[in-house]
Design brief:
InterPro entries: Secre_tail (IPR026444)
Domain Secretion system C-terminal sorting: 155-230
Keywords: Signal
Distance between the termini: 40 Å
Signal peptide: 1-19
Radius of gyration: 22 Å
Number of strands: 19
Order of helices and strands: HEEEEEEEEEEEEEEEEEEE
CATH architecture of the largest domain: Sandwich
Protein name: Por secretion system C-terminal sorting domain-containing protein
Structural class: mainly beta
């Protein structure tokens, strides 16, 4: 599928002339990723003018569901939702790669990312509209789902350094937790799932290699149990 970019140019003639000085290269195609997967694309900005350009790239994103994130990075500096980065491009040259990443969360969705390219010296803006899509989950990835509660299985599994679980829980729910047990049934650790967050990450490097079982409980009622394998 092709992404549709809608480019809004200022009515002013000067803005049109500015657009001829700057070209956004390789920013095409919609950004599609899978459930709890990451898709990364890169693009560049070419400066055709005889002067250095300082370009601020600002992103504004519609509501992102299920813990998905859209991140933009340039030379180690990254911006999240409604943040910006500023880059300098020498005269008659091309910028380094600008990276955009769509991290799929806990549910499928379609959204829009708006990118604004602002020339700080002449105060002109070009806007681009980028379609974002997270595909449907596989049933094997779903640990528990009911009403306002959606919890995904730990990944990766087997785990070596860490295992991550993404979830969404209603703010009205209390005492949601994950209990990790070894094959003998002994509790290794208990982790609270706060409604204010959507991700639980556990360090598996400190665990002995082997098979573990994790259980989701809400108000001390066990709702689901699944196996986690730890390797070295």
């Amino acid at each position: 599928m092709k992404i549709i970019f809608t480019i809004f140019l200022s009515i002013a003639l000067s803005a049109s002339l500015w657009a001829q000085d700057i070209l956004v290269k390789d920013l095409d195609g919609e950004i599609v990723t899978g459930f709890q997967k990451t898709t990364t694309k890169t693009f560049k900005i070419q400066n055709f003018s005889n002067t250095e350009k300082s370009i601020r790239i600002k992103q504004n994103i519609d509501e992102i569901q299920g813990g998905s994130t859209f991140i933009m990075c340039y030379q180690g500096v990254c911006s999240n939702k409604n943040e910006s980065i500023t880059i300098s491009i020498a005269a008659n040259s091309v910028s380094h790669d600008i990276k955009i990443m769509l991290n799929g969360g806990l549910s499928n969705f379609n959204s829009i990312a708006y990118l604004e390219f602002i020339d700080l010296k002449v105060d002109h803006v070009v806007k681009k509209e980028i379609a974002l899509k997270v595909t449907e989950r596989n049933s094997k990835d779903v640990f528990f789902e009911k009403g306002d509660i959606a919890v995904n299985s730990f990944f990766p599994n087997p785990a070596v350094k860490n295992a991550v679980m993404e979830y969404t829980i209603s703010p009205y729910e209390e005492d949601a937790k994950i209990t990790l047990q070894n094959v003998l049934g002994s509790i290794v650790n208990t982790y609270e799932l706060s409604p204010d967050h959507n991700k639980l990450s556990i360090n598996t490097e400190d665990l002995n290699p082997g098979v573990y079982f994790y259980t989701l409980s809400i108000r001390d009622e066990g709702l689901a149990t699944r196996k986690l394998i730890v390797k070295k």
